[in-house]
Design goal:
Blueprint lengths: L1 H25 L4 E7 L3 E7 H50 L7 H11 L1
Antiparallel strand pairs: 1-2
Helix pairs in contact: 1-2
Length: 116
């Protein structure tokens, strides 16, 4: 099932890229004004294809960084859990090596009282 979702995800990405490329080719010779910062960064003639690509690239980079941060978080969590499992296994091994005592202290007192 995981491979199916991965395949669908990549098919959607390729479809969106092809659609974006088609839009860029259709609007290759169309220009529009582009205002990045009002009063500071304004461009009079920018190809519409560039205006279409820039937000897409910005969103892609943003989501890629967020995805990488999520992957790092999962990696750190898995590493911490593996360390905890290793520590708990070591503790269990140490407990197995301890000698077995005959009952608890309360049980030993009861046995001592019964013997007298």
């Amino acid at each position: 099932m995981h491979n199916l979702f991965g395949t669908i995800k990549w098919l959607l990405i390729v479809l969106v890229l092809l659609l974006l490329m088609l839009l860029c080719l259709e609007n290759l010779h169309v220009f529009a004004p582009f205002i990045l910062l009002a009063g500071k960064k304004e461009y009079a003639r920018v190809p519409v294809s560039l205006i279409l690509i820039l937000p897409f690239l910005a969103a892609f980079i943003t989501f890629w960084v967020v995805g990488m941060l999520d992957q790092v978080d999962h990696f750190l969590l898995a590493r911490g859990l593996k360390k905890r499992i290793r520590d708990l296994e070591r503790e269990v091994d140490q407990l197995r090596k301890l000698p077995i005592r005959e009952g608890t202290a309360a049980q030993q007192r009861v046995d001592k009282e019964n013997d007298e």
